[in-house]
Amino acid sequence: MKSPFWRIGIHLLLGVSFLVLPYIFAPNGLGQIAQVAHNPHERTNLFAYILMLGFFYLNYYVLIPKLYFTQKYIYYALSICVSFGIIVGMLLSIDRQDILETTTHLEVPPPPSPHFPPPPPPKSYQQKPPLGFELSHALFLFLVGIFVSLSLQINERLRQTERENLNTKLSFLKAQINPHFLFNTLNTIYSLAIEQSPRTADVVVKLAALMRYVMREADTEKVPLAKELEYIDNYVALQQLRLDETAAIDFKIEGYPNGLQIAPLILISFIENTFKYGINPQEKSIVKIHLSIEKSILHLHTFNKKVRRFHDEETSSGIGLENARTRLGLLYPNKNLLFVNETDEDFTVELTLELS
Questions:
Q1: What CATH number corresponds to the domain at position 253?
Q2: Phi/psi of residue 280, nearest 5 degrees
Q3: Considering the entire predicted model, what is its pTM?
Q4: pLDDT digit string (tens) for 29-56?
Q5: Which of 18, 19, 64, 250 is deepest in the core (most CB within 10 A)?
Q6: Would you give the DSSP letter of residue 112?
Q7: Angle at 188 between CA 182 and CA 189, to 5 degrees
Q8: Which range of residues forms the domain containing residue 255?
Q9: What is the DSSP string of 226-281?
């Protein structure tokens, strides 16, 4: 998150650029700024830009959020008119003061004398353009300020709405994943309890660690990659406790997290599917889950032989895989590569994520 000092610095830079921009394209360049002290037109012009900059921030931070976005359009229009009237009044006050100062400094030349040469002509003062021209220039700047501030605020409101919709959609997708995982794990404990297996207590401990992670960590936008890998390791260990020697599980993690972060529960759907469709105690089952980290790139490879199919579960598996695809597209746009290869005999997933 960017610091407020960074934002203030950007606003100051943009404000100074707005005030200096007219002088960059002036005939004398930036040297024309020096004429503000004795040129009435330049003085009025500079004050017009300063007043318009102040109105821009008033409109952006106060009028648009409190009146325009709350659909108080009449009050918003009145506020705009009042603001323009105040600006015009201040410019007229400055303009009148400049006229008085100019007439005060004008000197009446003495009558010519036959004994002395005529005096030099009086000091000339640069005439100001017509008042109508300066007011039309101020109106143009005022309309530009309204248009730009409205455009920026509407764009920011649309981005905020998009972020809220994204968070709502991600929460819904995670809510679909978690009950599915819990259901499978409870089925595991139930099976072991029926068998009165001594490993039941170990499975319960693993489940407690998994659910603690889901409840405390997975509700955030990002989690440390190290915790996500620990979660996956516990999940695979739980499956190994349940399956014992009925399946050949090749599970390994290569590389180091190095402080990287990842969206929680974004990998588990692919790993769940390897056990859901690759394990059958009555057949030779093979499951491969390989995770590797190289710098900021995470690679996941899963493979399982299709040893069983349940028609009732195929739909839910499709939903889980589709949820994973959707979350990848929402959370890692242009930062993920997903390849799914399905044949009649096996199922392979290759996923590459660019993390931060």
A1: 3.30.565.10
A2: -150, 115
A3: 0.55
A4: 556 666 666 666 677 777 888 888 889 9
A5: 64
A6: P
A7: 90
A8: 245-354
A9: HHHHHHHHHHHHHHHHHHTTSEEEEEEEES--TT-EE-TTSSHHHHHHHHHHH--T
